What we know:
The chain is α+β, with helices and mostly antiparallel strands. Helices cover about 25% and strands about 25% of the residues. A hairpin with a 4-residue loop joins strand 10 (about 135-140) and strand 11 (about 145-150). It is globular.
Amino acid sequence: MLELHxxxxxxxxxxxxxxxxxxxVTATTDAEVVAAVREADADGTPLLVVGxxxxxxxxxxxxxxxxxxxxxxxxELTGTTLELAAGEVWTDAVARTVEAGLAGVECLAGxxxxxxxxxxxxxxxxxxxxxxxxxxxIAYDRRAGETVTLGNDECAFSYRHSRFKxxxxxxxxxxxxxxxxxxxxxxxxxxxAETARALGVEPGDRVPLAExxxxxxxxxxxxxxxxxxxxxxxxxxxxxxxxxxLTDADFAVFHARVKERLGDGVEPPAYPAGDGHTxxxxxxxxxxxxxxxxxGSGPARISTKHTLALTNRGExxxxxxxxxxxxxxxxxxxxxxITLVNEPVMVGVGL
Length: 351
């Protein structure tokens, strides 16, 4: 294992923000990951697990403990069953499944980060979520002191949530298993209207896998959601806030508030979200509350391409970013009575 002290963490995150870790350990095998976790737990040392760093907001003071960078590799495809090591680059793995002619994750192309992070957040975009294809997650259970295998139903997946996110100090993901589909080179049925429109088909249709992947990459790039070191709109964590899910009663109150503020002709986005619940759009709320693309005058601003992304324009600190996030949260709450919730994991800071 590679070990560094007083090690910068900002370069390991897509925000390029945050102070140093007391100690940074890079593990390239499962055994090294488990050994590092056990050592930290035995010593009572705070532990921060870092994958691709695309979902982390680290405080300017850094992390007083051991940061464990999971850099394991492993891509094993047997028929339609895929097993990925936690450290595999997610977007590269998606590309390989498309090359293999297998459907199920093609619309998750371009999402930065590592494979091990995908079940934690139940990563999803453009009509797909990893929970629909994950069959098992192999993880080190810090409480039990052993490696365990959790089936899909044991992962408690929901919108951008899971058992692993609910209990962040218990599990360290080692491998993820997926069951994909051989649809003769075609994608899974398209569920997202924007993707279908871009491809000139109807929702529910299938298209060639490569076309689905390339279309999603173009859509993401147009919103600054594909990493590009030269484009500060991509110095972000992607969507900074989750889409609010409201009870029907709360949605009715929100709907009335929209009418009062914006007029009778304006209808807020509304999507079914299970019995008695409706999901609305965080991006819409932010925009209609007055925080448009490019909002801000400091080193942290809203992306010029997408209102849901907060960005580092190159000289920002974490506090700059948090000040902007708090301003947006307060503005949306005042305008619509809804409190936005951050999607990235906060380390040593909070809203």
